[in-house]
């Protein structure tokens, strides 16, 4: 257990539905990342926050994806109008902004879109 | 953009030494990280190199040559529990770009 938690751990949804995932980082970490990982691939960067500011969002990400970190603590990732291609493991990680960018990953949310 | 290349699979025997290479092409570069991921688990941080040279942490060492855009992870005294996927990742101003990983299989 790294101290980063994600909820839910598994989500099955039908195509076209909206889903929302939550990530609670290590409390003193000011950076929070979202990644997507599919089988046989490395984690694919989606977006990251420093405190409550969203500093970068992948150009690969469509407008259906949005993330928030309203008080600089937990974060949510919403996917609207889900598609079968969105099926993946969604990973959250947190780190400190100073020194080595050692990221601590949560257990992930596995999304299956039927 | 960023692109990273690492071998897809490596096999070695228990007690041996194995080297996993990583080459990268990047528009920005702060350093190179390495992560380990067991099947069904989340990635865990192993090491980070910002400057050229070797960093040693127990049985694991990591090397970086910025001029060659090249790094490697060296695993010594391999154990069965080292069977996992290993990812190199380029760090650039807070953003991390991961390679597709190298699956290491350790045989008895």
Q: What quaternary form is this?
A: heterodimer
Beta fraction of the residues of chain A? over 45%
Label the overall shape of chain B: globular
Of all chain pairs, the largest interface belongs to: A-B, 26 and 22 residues
Global structural class of chain A:
mainly beta
What would you report as the Rg of chain A, rounded to the nearest angstrom?
A: 13 Å
Distance between the first and last residues' Cα of chain A: 30 Å
Structure description:
The complex is a heterodimer of chains A (114) and B (108). Chain A has 114 residues and is mostly beta strands. Chain A has no helices and eleven strands. Chain A has strands at residues 5-7, 10-13, 19-24, 31-37, 44-50, 53-57, 65-68, 75-79, 88-95, 104-105, 109-113. Chain A is globular and about 40 Å long. The termini of chain A are far apart. In chain B, the strands form two sheets. In chain B, strands 2, 4, 5, 9, 10 and 11 form a six-stranded mixed sheet that branches. The model of chain B has no long low-confidence stretch (mean pLDDT 95). Chain B is globular. With 108 residues, chain B is mostly beta strands. At the A-B interface, β4, β5 and β10 of A face β4, β5, β9 and β10 of B.
């Amino acid at each position: 257990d790294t101290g980063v938690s994600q909820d839910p751990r598994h989500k099955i949804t039908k195509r076209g539905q909206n889903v929302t995932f939550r990530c609670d980082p290590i409390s003193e970490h000011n950076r929070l990342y979202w990644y997507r990982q599919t089988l046989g691939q490395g984690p694919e960067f989606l977006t990251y926050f420093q405190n409550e500011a969203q500093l970068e969002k992948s150009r690969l990400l469509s407008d259906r994806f949005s993330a928030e970190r309203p008080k600089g603590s937990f974060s949510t990732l919403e996917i609207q109008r889900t598609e079968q291609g969105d099926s993946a493991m969604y990973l959250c990680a947190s780190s400190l902004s100073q020194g080595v960018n050692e990221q601590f990953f949560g257990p992930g949310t596995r999304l299956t879109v039927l | 953009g960023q692109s990273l290349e690492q071998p897809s699979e490596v096999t070695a025997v228990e007690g041996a030494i194995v080297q996993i290479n990583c080459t990268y092409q990047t528009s920005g570069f702060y350093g190179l990280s390495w992560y380990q991921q067991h099947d069904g688990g989340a990635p865990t941080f192993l090491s980070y190199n910002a400057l050229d040279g070797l960093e040693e942490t127990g049985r694991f060492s990591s090397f970086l040559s910025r001029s060659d855009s090249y790094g490697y992870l060296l695993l010594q005294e391999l154990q069965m529990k080292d069977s996992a996927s290993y990812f190199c990742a380029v760090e650039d101003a807070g953003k991390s770009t991961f390679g597709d990983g190298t699956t290491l299989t350790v045989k008895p």
